[in-house]
Amino acid sequence: MSSPNTPENDRTPFAAMGLSDAVMTALTDVGYETPSPIQEATIGPLLAGRDVLGQAQTGTGKTAAFALPILSTMRFGKDAGKEPRALVLAPTRELAIQVAEAFQRYASHMPGFHVLPIYGGQGYGPQLAALKRGVDVVVGTPGRVIDHLKRGTLKLDSLEWLVLDEADEMLRMGFIDDVEWVFENTPPERQVALFSATMPGAIRRIAKTHL
Ligand code: AMP
What we know:
Layout: H1 21-30, H2 37-47, E1 52-55, H3 62-73, E2 86-89, H4 93-106, E3 115-118, H5 124-133, E4 137-140, H6 142-151, E5 161-164, H7 167-172, H8 176-184, E6 191-196, H9 201-210
Parallel strand pairs: 1-6, 2-4, 2-5, 3-4, 5-6
Bound molecules: adenosine monophosphate.
C-alpha cells in the first residue's frame, strides 16, 4: 500500500483491487479513473474481510471507500433475504440521503438492489413500507435507526457490515450511546468500517472495543 501522498499514476488502479464487475462498470459510468488515497488505503483491506478505521474529511471520496467493497461482496436481488446486510450510521439527514444516493449510483448495474435512507422528521409510513418490501442497505441517523430496532421494524440478524460515517460528528451531536447500542445489537461477526475526520478519545475507544 502506498502513502496518501502517492502520485495519482502510482496508485493501485481500481481494476487491480478485486472489485466486482458490476461495480467496475458503474465506476466507468461515473467516470472515476483513479482511486483517491482513502480509497486506495481501505478498499483492499475491506475486501479482504478486515475492519477498517479511516481518518478522512468530506470530499476525499470516503463514501466510495466503503460503498464499493460492500457492494462488491453483497448478495442482492432474488438470492438475498429481505433484511439489510449493511447498515451505515450517519450524523445528519443530509448525509444519510447523500450516502444512499451514492450507493444507488454505484449499484446501478445490480438489478434488484435496494438502499433506504431513514432519518427523523420523516414519516414512518414510507420507511415501514420499504423495510417490509426488503432492503439491502440502510443508511440512517442513529436516533431513527434505534426507533426502528426497538419497534422490531428493522432487524439486523443478517447484518454483515456496519459503517460509521463521520463518527466524530455523531459524537459531537450526542449520539455516542446510540452508536454503542447499535454495536451491541449487531451480530458479532459483522465487518466494521469507521470513518472520522478527527480521532477524539471516545472514537478511539469505540474502535478499540468493537473493531
Ligand atoms: P465523498 O468524500 O465520498 O463525499 O466524495 C466526494 C466527491 O468525490 C463525490 O462527488 C464523489 O462522486 C467524487 N469521487 C469519489 N471518488 C472519486 C474518484 N476515485 N475519482 C473521481 N471522483 C471521485
